[in-house]
Design goal:
Elements lengths: L5 H11 L4 E5 L2 E5 L20 H13 L5 E5 L3 H9 L3 E12 L12 E4 L4 H9 L4 H9 L4 E8 L2 E11 L2 E9 L8 H15 L4 E7 L3 H9 L3 E10 L2
Parallel strand pairs: 8-9
Antiparallel strand pairs: 1-2, 3-10, 4-9, 4-10, 5-6, 6-7, 7-8
């Protein structure tokens, strides 16, 4: 099965969940944001680009000057950077798997009136996100996206049940911030949102739908794997103590 490359997925991650500011610091790419999670505040190093200890120190200094705890995203396999950060006392945080699905491999359609697509999101969607720990700073990240995007809204009967955010670039869509209210879990709400994302991605001319999920989130991983999604990339963070 044809799937996007690791490089494609990381490029989409930056496009679909963008930092407020991005700056080069030697070989490192630094992200500056007022909240919004690790993805928009982490430093990255292009694959297999050489670096020095002094350049790591320069990156740390700049991140701290912005009021951010030094945080590096290790994309793919970069044992040199991983080892250098471990030596400096950095801890591993949140190992993540990226999944992708070829849209031609799954049928179209969702249950009638079970999921709606919109932008901007209704207040009820923001309320659902807040209940799940996704606050205004992360909604601000969604608002910064400059590629096609949508908020998804699922109901159970006449009750609001769940929401998610999806954005697309270069033939790939990525789903973020999927949240289902506790009373409506295990009722197919997450699956309805996934199917709505699939339909939306097709409408944008995408070939694939992707998601990122922490390795420890077994229920979400099980959902994605049931849909036929396959792992295509991995990353983890190293955070200064």
């Amino acid at each position: 099965m044809n799937l996007p490359t690791e490089e494609d997925v990381f490029a989409l991650l930056d496009a679909s969940w963008p930092a407020q500011e991005v700056h080069d610091c030697g070989p490192f790419v630094l992200r500056r944001s007022n909240g919004g999670g690790k993805r928009v505040t982490a430093a990255t190093l292009p694959t297999r680009v050489p670096f020095t200890e002094n350049q790591i120190a320069d990156a740390e200094t700049q991140l701290r000057a912005w009021g951010q705890t030094p945080l590096f995203m290790i994309r793919g396999d970069d044992p040199q950077l991983d080892a250098a950060l471990e030596t400096r006392g950095y801890n591993i945080v949140d190992p993540v798997i990226a999944y992708a699905l070829d849209l031609s491999s799954i049928p179209t359609g969702t249950e009638v009136a079970s999921a709606y697509v919109m932008w901007p999101p209704l207040q009820i969607l923001c309320d659902i996100w807040v209940e799940g720990g996704i606050g205004p700073d992360r909604v601000a990240v969604m608002e910064r996206v400059r590629t096609p995007k949508a908020a998804l809204f699922a109901r159970t009967g006449d009750e609001a049940a769940g929401t998610a955010f999806v954005a697309a670039a270069n033939g790939i869509a990525m789903l973020h911030a999927l949240e289902v209210l506790p009373p409506h879990r295990r009722k197919g709400v997450a699956q309805n949102l996934m199917h709505a994302a699939l339909d939306w991605a097709r409408e944008q001319g995408c070939r694939w739908l992707s998601v990122v999920v922490t390795r420890a989130n077994d229920p979400a991983r099980a959902l994605y794997e049931r849909l036929g999604m396959q792992p295509v990339a991995e990353y983890h963070y190293r955070m200064a103590t």
